[in-house]
Each structure stands twice: as structure tokens, then as C-alpha cells.
Amino acid sequence: MINISRKLFFLVAACLPINLGYHFIVKEAYAGGLLIDYLIPTLFIQDLLVLALIISWSLSSSFKEDWKKIITFPQVVLAIWFVFAMLLSVFESGRTLPSLVFFARTALYVLFMFYTATNFNFDRDFGLLTKIFTVSVFLLGLLGVAQYLHQGSIFDNYLVFGEQPYDSRIVSIAKENVFGYTKIPAYGLFRHPNIFGGILSILLIWIFQKYLQTRSKSLLFVFLTGIFALVVTFSYLSWASLVIGIILVFSKQHGKKAAMLFVIAILVAGFLMPSVRNKLVNENPSVYRRINLLNASYKIISSEVLFGVGINNSIVALEKNIPWSKDIRFVQPVHNIFVLVLLEMGLVGFLLFVLILGYVFLQMWQNNSFLYIALLQIIFLGSFDHYFVTIHQPWLLLWLIIGMCASLGSVSKTSRF
């Protein structure tokens, strides 16, 4: 069973970018007459694979010993309380089914983190995991560049790895002005170019560090392919995330201190976006949408600060409180994962979430592990977008990284990787 669990772990990693799932269209998935993607109960292929891994692990001979070990990890204890707080949040939800589905998925991914914390061995497993992500970035890079050149989906069939069919005829599709021409960014296998760009920006740093160690021409080729794909997502925050990661790869101790200050500054900036007032902001949809969502969220939080509105239920509340704008109706989760957790789970869930991320970041920062760069990128991206909580692929990647941090932190207090 141990060998089966290990194979399933790497299969989950290989399938991480896939967007394929079965969607259950139910009445609770509608808000204000609109079918809301985030409220649709969906069973993704990753959910099934993680479930199979957890079952296999629970039947293994090492399961009891693993649990005795894992319960001593502070981040694991915090995660257990976080899941419990999320369960309580389900009872605060007006839309119970979407809330329950999100809770079940999170519980699975947290258990996946537990498995990673006790069974992932950096000396044995990190090389293979990096190879898997290298292949993923290469294939996603080729797909992304092809989508941009084609100005639409390539397979045009959701059943092929979950690529959503799209072209210029779809009104809600993302569009960018490139030297006076309207262009559609690359989506990859994700629901939005920002998600594609965010995932690429993190995995490209892993590949870049491996290239610096090996000077492999094939790794350099994959890295450049991923860069091209990242560029044509036109996800400016993801571009910044990659630049930040590269700077931190080359900077040593001084870079670490700057990284800590940067994290604090970004968190503050993410919360204070509504205080920004100028003509450029008012005319930029990407900015004023975020500000409108933050303003509506703060209004709701002021009356729901203790328990929140219920997990995966914020869109329903936001739809009733978001101010009118020049847009077609724009109903999405608030574009800040910390405000989102506070809005949906209340103060206790928010504090637990911050403590989990804060603990693993400080642990990796002190241990001089490269994983602190990935965590900083997630904090940066999550301060201005929601997908690291609301979308299954980044949500799974986050818990994988937390599990890797727990594994590394439990065996080493010195510089690693």
C-alpha cells in the first residue's frame, strides 16, 4: 500500500493542472438569476485521485505511526482547527450544498497535506516531482502559445484535459489591447489567464533553480517555453510574481530580510486598495472591480465579523451589496484570499489561515529553504486575486507546498534546496 500511495501522490502532481470535472447544475448555483461557476458543485479528477491516495494511505502499515508523528507538527494542528472552523462555517451558509462541497474538497486536500508532510522525502522525491512539473510546464507552455497564436482553444472540447472552449465570439472572454489590436490571452487548462500565469510563475522558479544547479539545456528550453506562455497570459501580477521569485533566487540574506518587509507591505496594500483614488484607477476595470468587491466585503464583514457568511457563500452576499459600475454584471469572489476567508469564515477562520501561512513561511525563511519563495509568491498573488482559495488547482498546490514545508521543517534546520 505504501508503494501504491507514493504512485498516487505523483499521479496527483502530474494531473494538478487538469480542469476536468463533472458539474452538477443545481438551483443553489444561481445568484441573482445568473449561473455562478463558483457555486456549481463539481467533482474534479484531482478530488478522486486524492481520495484514492488517502484510502490507500489509511490501509498502509505506516498509517498509525504517521499520525503519531504528524500530530506533533504545529501547522498540522492549525490545519485541523482550520478544517473544523470551516465545518462550523457550513452551518452559517445560506447555500448549504456549495458550502459542503467546498468543505469536503478542502478536507481532502488538507489530508493530502498530511500525507505529504509525513511521506514526502526531499532527497528521494523532490527530483521526480520537479521532473513532473517540468513536463507539465513544457506541455502547458506549448498549449498556451498555440492558444494565443490561434486566438482560441486548441482542442475545443472540455473533455480533453478540461480545456474550456473559447474564441473571440464569447462576450465574457478576457481580451487585451496589444499595440492597438485586440488579443485573447492564453488560458491553458485554467479558467482564467491570471490563474494560468500565477501557476506558471511559481513552477518556473522551481525549474529555474534546477537549471542553475545543472545548467541543462533542456531545462533552459522548458523555462523559456514557460516564459513565452506566461507573457501571453497578459497576467501582470504573474509577471511581477516571476520577477520577484527570480530576484529572491539570486539574493541571499539581504534578500530574505527584504522579502519579509515585502510580505508585510503587500498584505497591507491588499487590504488598503479601496483607499486608492485617482483617474487611472477609476478607468481601469481590473482595479475598480477589485476595489468595489473589497468595499462590499468590508461592509458585510462589519456585521458578520465573528462567523462570516459561510464558506463558499460570499458571492451571494456580494451580489446584493456590490455597487453599480460601468461593467456588465461582474459577480466574483473578493480578489484577496485573506479578506475572502475573513468574509466567509469570520475572525477565527481568518486567524487560523493566517497562522498556517505565517508559520510555514517563517519556518522556511529561517531554514533558508527555497519554498519560502513559493509561499511569498502565493501571498503576493493572493493579496490581489482569489484563485488560490476558490479554484481547485491552485488550492491543491497550496496544500502540497504546505505539506512539503512541514516535511522539510521536520527533518532539517539548515539550508536545503
From TrEMBL:
One matching Pfam family: Wzy_C
Question: Which InterPro entries does the entry mention?
Answer: O-antigen_ligase-rel_domated, WaaL-like
State the membrane topology: Multi-pass membrane protein
Q: Which residues form the O-antigen ligase-related domain?
A: 221-354
Q: Where in the cell is it found?
A: Membrane
The entry's cellular-component GO terms read: membrane
Q: What is its main location?
A: membrane
Keywords attached to this Swiss-Prot or TrEMBL record, sorted alphabetically, are: Membrane, Transmembrane, Transmembrane helix
Regions crossing the membrane: 7-26, 38-59, 71-91, 97-116, 128-149, 189-208, 220-251, 257-276, 296-317, 337-362, 369-389, 395-412
User: Can you name this protein?
Assistant: O-antigen ligase-related domain-containing protein
